[in-house]
Design goal:
This protein has 425 residues and is of the alpha/beta class. The protein has 2 domains: 14-214 and 341-414, Rossmann fold, CATH 3.40.50.10540; 252-330, no CATH class. Helix content is 40%, strand content 13%. It has a 7-stranded mixed β-sheet with strand order 6-5-4-1-2-3-12, sandwiched between helices. Strand 7 (241-246) and strand 8 (252-257) form a beta hairpin. The chain is elongated, with a radius of gyration of 26 Å. The mean pLDDT is 95.
């Protein structure tokens, strides 16, 4: 199975990734999709996420398979001193490392830098370390989301704010945002090294990404200004006109109107111009005056639009909304989205299924960035665990086949698990 890339723009960059779960592998994935050689190093039996649910009947993790596309895999005994030394040597040799191991682990920035100097390279190691909280406490997406307050903003509007339960979201959004930011931070550190010759350690706390985003969005300032929490809004959009509606055939869909064109388009598509004019006269306001009057009078508007929606089947109303240039989407389940022709089959983001370790064929993504001046290659497969151990140790560390064979015999290095039987998992 060849090591294909989706864009060949970072083909002069090698990165060692020592990761688990979501945020750190995401950072490596985005670099790999832009052409970097990303070498994921795991314990020889697999990292903490190697058998993360959901597993195929053969015992292969679909999560691991998709977060590690286009990477190379090296499997070492990371519980042994010899295996850890090889990992540090490999990271130091490449000069770039992404990890979510603790700073006080064997893979500290200082250890990698010292090894790099020992190898005769410059004092310019660049490492990106994804952490929990800035003070070293552990964190996961779902715990930092709770800390930042978002689960207490979701849920039906009519819930009692004193007794209503929190509603956690199923998407680990902070992990993915942290992964994307870490890839950006790595590129920034490499740019600085090119300009100054200096390496650096970059620490990206997951918790800081969450609480920092709360601040960057203006939400923190809003809470401090109002001196209290924002009310729950159900499916309404905060500060603008938008909500879910249901047609007479029972189809639910979401609309958003943040611009004058979006607003006038919805009014025309729903056929509520007369009702809007009557409401404006009653309230003494102009709904064309921007987001504020529409948001502050949202309940009256929602009733008007819902009543109109009940007079249409979805196909008719969606055609009317498309004709008026409205912004809307029908609610889909994950499975419905996965088989939707517009979202997947006709979307150039997706390419043909590569030879996945799971043996299961399904659409796979290219890079999210669409670069018309560059040809996007077909999606690359994830590696089998240890598939590139021999290749990487020979190419990066100059080890002979005999030396590698001794390490394999000693259990320090593991080769591909392609033929392993995981059906017992």
């Amino acid at each position: 199975m060849g090591h294909e890339r989706m864009y060949n723009l970072l083909n002069d960059l090698s990165i060692v990734e020592v990761s688990s779960f979501v945020a750190s592998p995401t950072a490596g994935l985005y670099c790999a999709q832009m052409g970097a050689e990303v070498i994921r190093v795991d314990h020889k039996a697999g990292g903490l996420d190697y058998d993360r649910y959901m597993l195929t009947k053969e015992g292969r993790s679909l999560s691991w398979e998709n977060l590690n596309r286009a990477k190379k895999s090296v499997a070492l005994d990371l519980r042994s001193a010899e295996g850890r030394e090889l990992c540090v040597e490999l990271a130091a040799k490449t000069g770039q490392c992404i990890t979510n191991l603790p700073e006080k682990s064997f893979l500290s920035h200082g250890a990698m830098q010292a090894q790099r100097i020992k190898q005769g390279a410059r004092d310019d190691m660049v490492s990106v370390r994804i952490m929990g909280w800035h003070d070293g406490r552990q964190a996961m997406d779902f715990t930092v989301n709770a800390a930042a307050g978002y689960p207490l903003m979701t849920g039906p509007e009519e819930w009692d704010p004193e007794s209503a339960p929190p509603v956690s979201q199923p998407l680990p959004a902070w992990d993915f945002i942290t992964g994307a930011y870490s890839a950006f931070a790595l590129m920034t550190a490499l740019h600085n090294r090119s300009a100054t010759g200096q390496g650096t350690e970059v620490r990206v706390p997951l918790g800081d990404v969450a609480i920092g985003t709360l601040a960057n969005s203006g939400t923190m300032a809003e809470m401090l200004y109002r001196g209290s929490d924002r009310e729950r809004l159900g499916n309404a959009i905060w500060g603008a006109f938008g909500r879910d509606f249901q047609t007479k055939c029972g189809t639910r869909f979401m609309v958003a109107a943040l611009t004058p064109k979006q607003w006038t388009g919805l009014v025309a598509a729903f056929g509520v111009a007369e009702g809007i004019a009557a409401l404006e006269g009653e309230l003494g306001i102009d709904f064309n005056g921007g987001d504020r009057p529409r948001f502050e009078n949202r309940h009256r508007l929602f009733d008007l639009f819902q009543s109109a929606a009940e007079g249409f089947d979805y196909d008719t109303l969606s055609a009317r909304m498309r004709a008026e240039g409205c912004t809307f989407e029908k609610y889909r389940s994950h499975h419905e989205a996965s088989v939707d022709p517009d979202l997947v089959d006709n979307n150039p983001l997706f390419g043909p299924s590569p030879s996945n370790p799971s043996g299961f064929e399904y659409p796979a993504t290219r890079s999210f960035a669409n670069m018309p001046a560059h040809e996007a290659e077909d999606p690359a497969p994830a590696p089998f665990l240890g598939q590139h151990s021999e290749e990487v140790l020979a190419d990066k560390l100059g080890l002979s086949s005999g030396a590698i064979a001794k390490l394999v015999d000693a259990g320090t290095v593991a080769l591909s698990d392609q033929n392993a039987d995981y059906t017992h998992r």
